[in-house]
């Protein structure tokens, strides 16, 4: 039975050097030849994954943790953050000197000219510090935002803004997404378009933003390099991404 393989990018498809292992590329190509469908499921935005989509010839993706979904080149779901809510969170962050980054499907924009926390976390994605436009969120749809603060400063956001979710993805940064907007809700919206059922889905991931996806998919695989909570919740834990973990998982599951 053909499966829909839902692939996280950072730490799952891409290794610790942000490179695509040859074994992973070969495994994906073979899985496709064996009749399985491939989809990206990431916290990144569409503009950040163009190269990997092209290299792997994948044209179906869940981005912004479920907020922007495309299938065969057509947008099948999008949900922007409420502008008034975003304005309040931004003002709250500004009072605490926590910078903000806004993202739509085409770009990311910073609220501040330069900040070391933005630089550190965005550089970890191998992309440059974003351009500045303080009022970007007032004139554009924003599907995901990033607030930059340490883990010890995060709880105040959860306590004050219960209408949105804050999910930590980096030492100094949290994703800001609509409440319940996760890769899991993304999968449910995607399968409406692809014609698959939940029974056909296998999720591959490593981070905290993969937890709900792993819970909803029929089967889930965590990378050995993943977060401890992610590994606990997965159906199966494969080897480290740097040690051909993805290809090994595909073999274990008889996808190739």
Provide a short characterization of the protein structure.
GO terms for molecular function: magnesium ion binding; phosphatase activity. This is Hydrolase Cof. With 256 residues, this protein is α/β, with parallel strands linked by helices.
How do the helices and strands line up, and which of them pair or pack?
Blueprint: E1 4-7, H1 22-33, E2 37-41, H2 50-56, E3 60-63, E4 68-71, E5 74-78, H3 83-95, E6 100-103, E7 108-110, H4 116-123, E8 131-132, H5 136-139, E9 144-148, H6 155-160, E10 164-170, E11 173-178, H7 183-194, E12 201-205, H8 211-216, E13 219-222, H9 228-233, E14 236-237, H10 245-252
Helix pairs in contact: 1-10
Protein name: Hydrolase Cof
GO molecular function: magnesium ion binding; phosphatase activity
GO cellular component, one term: cytosol
Describe this structure in words.
It holds the Pfam family Hydrolase_3. Keywords: Hydrolase. This is Hydrolase Cof. By secondary structure, the chain is α/β, with parallel strands linked by helices. It has two domains: 147 residues, HAD superfamily/HAD-like (Rossmann fold, 3-Layer(aba) Sandwich), CATH 3.40.50.1000; 96 residues, Hypothetical Protein, Haloacid Dehalogenase-like Hydrolase, Chain: A, domain 2. The strands form two sheets. It has an eight-stranded mixed sheet. Strands 8-7-6-9-11-10 form a six-stranded mixed sheet. Helix 1 packs parallel to helix 10. The longest helix is centred in the middle third of the chain and has 13 residues. The radius of gyration is 18 Å and the shape is globular. The two termini are 13 Å apart.
């Amino acid at each position: 039975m053909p499966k829909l393989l839902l692939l996280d990018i950072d730490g799952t498809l891409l290794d610790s050097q942000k490179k695509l292992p040859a074994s992973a590329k070969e495994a994906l190509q073979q899985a496709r030849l064996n009749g399985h469908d491939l989809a990206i499921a990431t916290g990144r935005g569409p503009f950040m994954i163009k190269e990997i989509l092209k290299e792997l010839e994948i044209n179906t993706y869940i981005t912004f943790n479920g907020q922007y979904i495309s299938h065969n080149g057509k947008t099948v779901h999008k949900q922007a953050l409420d502008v008034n809510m975003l304005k309040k969170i931004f003002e709250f962050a500004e009072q605490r000197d926590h910078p903000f980054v806004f993202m739509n499907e085409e770009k990311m924009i910073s609220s501040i000219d330069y900040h070391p926390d933005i630089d550190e976390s965005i550089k970890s994605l191998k992309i440059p510090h974003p351009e500045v436009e303080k009022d970007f969120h007032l004139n554009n749809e924003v599907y995901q935002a990033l607030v930059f603060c340490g883990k010890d400063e995060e709880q105040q956001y959860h306590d004050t803004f219960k209408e949105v979710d804050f999910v930590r993805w980096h030492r100094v940064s949290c994703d800001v997404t609509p409440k319940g907007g996760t890769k899991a809700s993304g999968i449910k919206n995607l399968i409406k378009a692809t014609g698959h059922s939940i029974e056909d889905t296998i999720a591959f991931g490593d981070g905290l933003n993969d937890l709900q996806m792993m819970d909803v998919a029929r089967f889930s695989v965590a990378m050995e390099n993943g977060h401890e909570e992610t590994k606990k919740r997965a159906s199966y834990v494969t080897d480290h991404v740097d040690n051909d973990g993805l290809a090994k998982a595909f073999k274990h599951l008889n996808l190739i």
